[in-house]
Design a protein that fits this description.
heterotrimer, A mainly alpha (201), B mainly alpha (643), C alpha+beta (334), B: 643 residues, mainly alpha, two-stranded antiparallel ribbon, globular, C: 334 residues, alpha+beta, Immunoglobulin-like, 2 domains, five-stranded mixed sheet, 9 helices, 41% helix
């Protein structure tokens, strides 16, 4: 071609992290969901003003057991996810598939612990009072994210097992990991707000 | 008038044959399937954006009919033409349609059409998501209007204040439909926003560092960020409302510790930025049009960019000025008054920069510029009345009166619709390859301008005269008749102006003279390709070395080496736009459409039972699996290892 | 030119302000706001005139553009333009500071007004009428009325706004700005009339089907007239002695009326609708929808939905004689 051309044919076709457009797409998703959770969190504090006691009389303090177990599972799950992330960058098909399988199991464990929280630990229903409404919503929103990400991991695992596998599938595993870090990390403030804050507010 | 510094011109003559071959290959890969299937499946930013624009103007027409009905009802005092129940549906539908189904989507649609062209790439970052967003938007609009046709349109205002919109005072499905409409439009708006941000940050042609980005692209970037942080508030609020109504939560029920003011905070935390989400893209239109017809760059580009960003931030700090009549602590009032007035400074910077650009330029008076100039005058009025309502003492009188109706129509029609119509005339040649009629463009401007002022200026006086908003009638002796008659007469003129404008567009599409690549002598990259642009936008992606690339006399290299047998685009660095890697985009697919159908089934079912959420999610799981399941990637991208 | 038309209209606005309650204040609070309004109005008019004049001047003296656009710029011209923008921005900021300071000062004045012994009213918004209670330390001395407020000239009136259903907004533009009535939240404002007269008030927050017909009247009287009125309002109704009116009384008490309306001194104690103890002394019916005449009252009782579609009051199928008797009873509630 002419010297007046900028030849890009030698550039790679795959990139990870902020170099990849899909990473920015997931960052946008994280910003949206983070904002939504933050807004529910602020609503929680706003509604607090309408109550003398928090939780309201008749509702016990939320029990810590299942939620703390959830916290441990989610924080611990960052490790296998980070390993999957590294394996994905090395484009290792089989190990990545296995790692995603582990992540699916951890996601299901978190959801099971979440179910226990809804069933007993909160000590109230969503329709008991505004307190019940807002804590159910906080936990429910977060659980929806765990479920979504777990389904994504399962789908990607299926793709890697069945094939044909494309190189971009590894970028997908990489951004799944990015999304999962967000979900695990955001459980910390959510947990603090729902389970610890009533003990101090 | 013609500019020949298009990227293709830099190829040596001997390469013309090669270019012809490349174009043929690109056309095969990038073209949308023909016919109905193509319509469902398109992954082209241009065809999706044009559909968006046409649909949005369709909703604009419907919203306009509702406005006309309201003017008809209010022309006479104590009129019995339209009863209160229907009237309340009409004004709710008018507001919801204009805000959610027209203004925001049409601005984002212009962004989706223009941004990839302006930054020199082939498509948006996530073409299938783009198509999905359109269908969600269309289905949401159709659901709302179907409900209205069945006399179950929402009737508690576009702001749906609780407890009026709560289960106790609005039984039935009307408010549920409104809340679900919010879900639809918020998904569509968020999809488009992420789309625009990633496209802008990662797909700018080599050399287009952030400080060389066209102001319109800056405007869309800031807008998209505002959407991302504003929409979650309404998403959360409307979900809370829907849950209060459907599963008996108590977010807004004072008897169980809920709070009516929580809704107002959440709604306006979204609702005020919403105005800027509509207005900021309009400033991008104006900057482009003013610069083009003043034949010079905008004065104070850095100041303009900073003003846009400052508006984006400040837009989130003044929601409470919609709540002054609630009764707030004094310090809070002072803070929000100060913030609301402060936002006049970035707006002022932009107005002064446009005026200085005109002053320092050599003005070519053409119809699009006329709309931009009309905008400046009307927006200054709307801005000044905005400062008035930002002051607590005045707001206590003006709030919820026709003065506010006048104010925000000056901001939204004067400040956003006028630039939008100017933009339609300006980019119509690019979109359809034909020139609009100059005389009709001017005539429609003057009729619209006169009609607009005749309609909305008297509303200031009606407000000062004590006329509250959202009343379906007023008393004979209230002293409000004259102002209302003038406003209704003005509405007739305004409608005539819009009709002449639309006639011009229709005429252009059928009979307009061929436009050529760059009929206005404009500077941004969309004018460096054919009108209408080919499916792949540019045969070779351009590179730039400054602002206003088409006004540069320097020849610039073009990008070569992108594959022409798959939909490959160039991903560049977010700040300085150096080439980073090549990336294959997805092509046409029916799954986005099917996913939108699944989501719609879920949302409509959720009107009746919470299980709708589950049903919709399961259906979406199926369609999303179809969407992302790999089928036949090109050989060079598949991986050989077996598990 | 239509821009000229705007200016003309603005001047016309100034000229006809006498008919606009916001700009025709009847008391100190509204007067403060009106003063602030005129400051902002004239400053705004000046800014608009300057911008439009600059724009028109630029267009009138525009250079002819034969050559295509160019990126070559004259640095001296650019400097001049940039300085112009900077100066304009500076002026804007200065104007805003002036407006902010005057706004805060006006706001403080509005808040601190009140005195030590205001007349205290509790105004509760209902769909679609106003309940008014004149507060008094002695419960039996409190007065309840609806849709019509009498106040003494020259004395501050503390209005406590509240609601038990949806959000309403109490707004008497001739006396003060508005204050929302929000369920779960109490709020208040202090207003005062400096001249005798009738001020129209309206609900300013959309509150449902009949938001348009939710007016109230504020009638400012000289203190002695007001005192007499208040004294009269404290009296309970008396059971009519006249046989015809007595029949109306019985109909009221045994029919649907008493379920929703209170008439002090009688068994009727419903609270869903306005207190009717002194109905005949009021000027309007149905929150300003109709003038309070016998004919309108009759029409209202028989078919309220025809006058105010969606109102909470159901229609009543009284025969002509019964209706006349009822009207005779109601006419005696002065």
């Amino acid at each position: 071609m002419s010297q007046r051309a900028l030849d890009v044919s030698a550039l790679p076709t795959i990139a990870y992290g902020p170099r990849a457009s899909i990473w920015w797409g997931v960052l946008g998703l994280v910003a949206i969901e983070g904002s939504a959770l933050a807004i529910v969190g602020v609503s929680y504090l706003y509604l607090r003003q309408n109550f003398v006691a928090w939780p309201p009389p008749g509702t016990p303090l939320p029990a810590l057991g299942a939620a703390t177990g959830d916290l441990v599972v989610l924080l611990a799950s960052i490790v296998p996810m980070a390993i999957v992330d590294r394996l994905a960058r090395a484009e290792r098909r089989r190990p990545v598939a296995i790692g995603l399988g582990v992540m699916v199991l951890l996601g299901l464990a978190s959801l099971a612990l979440r179910a226990l929280q809804f069933a007993g630990a909160l000590g109230c229903r969503w329709d008991s009072h505004a307190y019940g409404s807002v804590v159910w919503t906080l936990l429910g929103m977060h659980a929806a994210h765990v479920l979504t990400s777990t389904l994504e991991n399962a789908l990607l695992m299926a793709v890697l097992v069945v094939g044909p596998v494309e190189r971009k599938d590894f970028v997908d595993a990489h951004v799944n990991a990015f999304y999962w870090y967000f979900i695990a990390a955001v459980w910390v403030p959510t947990y603090a707000l729902v389970y610890l804050a009533p003990r101090f507010l | 008038m013609s500019s020949t510094v298009g990227p293709t011109s830099t190829l040596a003559p001997g390469e013309a044959a090669r270019e012809t071959l490349d174009r043929a290959a690109l056309e095969r890969v990038w073209s949308t399937p023909p016919g109905f299937l193509g319509w469902l499946t398109s992954a082209s930013h241009k065809s999706v954006a044009l559909r968006y624009i046409v649909t949005a103007f369709g909703f604009f027409a419907l919203g306009g009919v509702l406005a006309a009905l309201m003017r008809l009802q209010l022309t006479r005092p104590e009129s019995r033409l339209i009863g209160p129940d229907l009237y309340n549906q009409i004004f709710t539908m008018h507001g919801s349609t204009m805000m959610f189904l027209f203004a925001v989507p049409v601005m984002e649609a212009f962004g989706i059409y223009l941004v990839p062209l302006m930054i020199g790439t082939r498509n948006v970052a996530f073409p299938r998501m783009n198509n999905f967003g359109y269908w969600i938007y269309l289905f949401g609009g159709l659901m709302l209007w179907t409900a209205f046709a069945l006399d179950i349109g929402p009737d508690t205002g576009w702001f749906a204040y609780v407890p009026l919109s709560g289960p106790a005072y609005s039984p039935g499905k009307r408010v549920d439909i409104w809340a679900q409409l919010i879900t639809f439009t918020e998904i569509a708006a968020l999809v488009a926003a992420v789309e625009l941000i990633v496209t802008t940050l990662k797909m700018r042609c080599p050399g287009m560092s952030l400080n060389r980005m066209p102001l319109f692209v800056w405007a869309m970037l800031v807008t998209a960020f505002m959407v991302i942080f504003a929409m979650p508030a309404i998403m959360v609020a409307s979900t809370m409302l829907a849950m209060d109504r459907l599963v008996d939560t108590h977010f807004f029920n004072p008897a169980e510790g809920g709070d009516a003011l929580l809704w107002q905070h959440l709604f306006w935390f979204f609702g005020h930025p919403e105005v800027y989400i509509i207005f900021i893209p309009a400033t991008g239109f104006v900057s482009t049009i003013v610069s083009t017809f003043a034949r010079r760059r905008i004065v104070g580009y850095p100041a303009m960019v900073l003003a846009l960003i400052a508006t984006g931030f400040l837009g989130f700090s003044l929601w409470v000025h919609h709540m002054f009549a609630v009764g707030l602590p004094q310090l809070g009032e002072a803070f929000f008054t100060a913030a609301s007035m402060m936002i006049a400074i970035p707006s002022g910077i932009q107005v002064f920069c446009w005026l200085a650009t005109l002053r320092g330029g050599r003005i070519v008076m053409r119809a699009p510029l006329l709309w931009a100039l009309g905008f400046i005058a009307l927006f200054v009025i709307g801005g000044l009345t905005g400062v008035m309502t930002a002051a607590v003492p005045l707001d206590l009188q003006l709030h919820d009166t026709y003065f506010v109706v006048a104010h925000f129509h000056y901001v939204l029609i004067g400040g956003a619709l006028f630039p939008l119509l100017g933009a339609v005339l300006f980019w119509l040649p690019k979109m359809c390859g034909r020139m609009p009629d100059e005389r009709l463009g001017r005539v429609s401007f003057w009729i619209t301008f006169v009609g607009f002022n005749l309609t909305f200026f008297p509303m200031h006086l009606l407000g000062l005269g004590g006329m509250p908003r959202r009343v379906y009638t007023y008393a004979r002796d209230a002293g409000l008749t004259t102002g209302n008659v003038v406003a209704s007469a003005g509405a007739v003129v305004l409608t005539a102006g819009i009709l002449v404008f639309l006639a011009n567009v229709a005429w252009t599409l059928r009979r307009g003279a061929p436009a050529g690549d760059d009929p206005w002598g404009a500077e941004t990259l969309e004018w460096a390709t054919a009108s209408p642009p080919p499916s792949y936008n540019f045969a070779y992606l351009p590179t730039v070395d400054g602002q206003a690339p088409l006004w540069s006399t320097q020849e610039r290299p073009v990008v070569t080496g992108l594959r022409t047998d798959v939909r490959e685009v160039l991903i560049t660095d977010g700040v300085d736009a150096t080439p980073d890697h090549r990336h294959r985009l997805d092509g046409a697919s029916v799954w986005p459409f099917l996913t939108a159908v699944a989501a719609t089934i879920g949302v409509v079912t959720a009107l009746f039972t919470p299980w709708g959420v589950t049903i919709g999610s399961l259906l979406a799981l199926v369609t999303l699996t179809g969407w992302f399941w790999p089928r036949g990637a090109p050989a060079h991208e598949t991986v050989e290892q077996r598990p | 030119m239509s821009r000229a038309a705007i200016v003309v209209a603005a001047v016309a606005c100034a000229a006809c302000s006498g008919r606009m309650p916001v700009l025709d204040p009847g008391g100190p609070q509204a007067a403060r706001i009106a003063t602030y309004w005129w400051i902002v109005f004239w400053l705004s008019a000046l800014i608009l005139a300057a911008v439009v004049a600059f724009l028109l001047h630029t267009l009138a003296h525009r250079r002819v553009a034969a050559a295509p656009a160019s990126l070559v710029e004259d640095t001296r011209v650019e400097r001049r333009l940039a300085l112009g923008v900077a100066a304009a921005v500076g002026l804007t900021a200065l104007t805003l500071v002036v407006l902010l300071v005057t706004s805060v000062a006006t706001g403080r004045a509005l808040r601190s007004f009140g005195g030590t012994d205001p007349l205290t009213l509790e105004v509760t918004g209902y769909q679609w009428w106003w309940d008014v209670e004149y507060w008094d330390p002695v419960p039996s001395q409190r007065v309840r009325t609806a849709n019509e407020i009498h106040i003494p000239v020259g004395r501050p009136v503390l209005v406590k706004t509240r609601s038990l259903d949806v959000i309403h907004s109490f707004w008497v533009p001739g006396l003060h700005g508005k204050k929302d009535n929000i369920p779960g939240h109490g709020s208040s404002l202090v207003l005062q009339a400096d001249r005798a007269g009738t001020f129209i008030g309206r609900c300013a927050e959309f509150c449902g089907v009949q938001h348009a017909h939710m007016q109230l009247l504020v009638i400012a009287d000289q203190p002695e007239v007001f005192d007499a009125w208040l004294q009269a309002q404290r009296r309970s109704a008396v059971v009519p002695t006249d046989a015809f009116a007595r029949h109306g009384f019985d109909l009221f008490m045994t029919g649907p009326c008493a379920l929703c309306h209170t008439v002090l001194g009688t068994p009727a104690g419903g609270r869903r609708g306005p207190d009717l103890t002194h109905l005949a002394s009021r000027r309007t019916l149905a929150a300003g929808t109709l003038p309070n005449t016998v004919g309108h009252l009759a029409g209202w009782i028989i078919d309220p939905q025809a006058q105010k579609p969606g109102a909470q009051m159901p229609g009543n199928a009284f025969g002509a004689d019964d209706l006349s008797a009822l009207l005779a009873f109601l006419g005696g509630l002065s």
